[in-house]
Amino acid sequence: MYEKKIPKDFSCGFSVLMEIIGGKWKSYLLYLIHNGVHRPNELHKQMPSATRRVLNMQLRELEFHGMVKRVIYPELPPRVEYFLTEFGDSLLPVIFEMNEWGNNHLERFQKLITDKQLEAVA
Amino acid sequence: MYEKKIPKDFSCGFSVLMEIIGGKWKSYLLYLIHNGVHRPNELHKQMPSATRRVLNMQLRELEFHGMVKRVIYPELPPRVEYFLTEFGDSLLPVIFEMNEWGNNHLERFQKLITDKQLEAVA
DNA sequence: CTGCATCCTGAAAGATACTG
DNA sequence: CAGTATCTTTCAGGATGCAG
Where is the HTH hxlR-type domain (chains A, B) (predicted)? Predict the structure, then answer.
């Protein structure tokens, strides 16, 4: 199905999708951009625990994969904005569905983790 | 949305889902088990490039997360089989959808990679 | 504000060899 | 056939600092 986190074999759809949204912040980036957060600095404020460097890297990857478009305004101070492409839009429903499934089982999952931690202590 | 490949913050559904199927072979394992491949050795044959050790680890994680059930037959030679739980079943549609989206854009993506590689050579 | 260059760490995955 | 125990490798992601 998929061979590596960054596989060489993209023979199945799953591997392709994982390649595109497999990055640590990519899904969130897509989500935020979709919701009107377009500038790098604003995106960063929404996920302070991520580094600007990492954000840039992932944004570039998303750009390379055709999910977002990078628009540069030749101003001073410099301004850059990211927008979803049609391709990127097409992915949103899938991400939302993934998120929804997770939310549907969130409590169960958190309980699982909590119990496990209690076990570990005991 | 999600903080780490193996995050500590499971406050959003996406992170939960990524925790569960984020492993290198997990989605494929679920898929194979769903399709009637139940025994570790058979599973391994379907993905020879994975190590038995890694497969075991990921199967155990899937078991821990309640996606699969491990059944041990006290025979000689020893036999073990994995089955999807209801919980695991509920995830399949999502995985299939992810796979379908990827397949729908597979050609485009492969072309992208190919072109990129040609670029790199030039 | 924007991004890049450098170095570093940690966790996942591979290799190998072992037991029941 | 099943699984586990080490050791090593790999690489995405983090920390920091500089530059346009």
Answer: 12-110
For the structural domain made of A13-121, what CATH number should be given?
1.10.10.10
Please tell me the distance from the alpha carbon of residue A75 to that of residue A32, in angstroms, as a whole number.
24
Chain D nucleotides covered by protein, CB below 7 Å: 1-6, 11-17, 20
Work out the angle at residue A4's Cα, subtended by the Cα atoms of residues A67 and A109, and round it to the nearest 5 degrees: 80
pTM for the predicted model, two decimal places: 0.88
Domain chopping of chain A, boundaries: 13-121
Q: How far apart are CA B101 and CA B104, in angstroms?
A: 5
pLDDT digits (tens, 9 = 90+) for B91-107: 999 999 999 999 999 88
User: Six-digit token pair at B95?
Assistant: 């995985």
Closest chain A CA to residue B105: A13
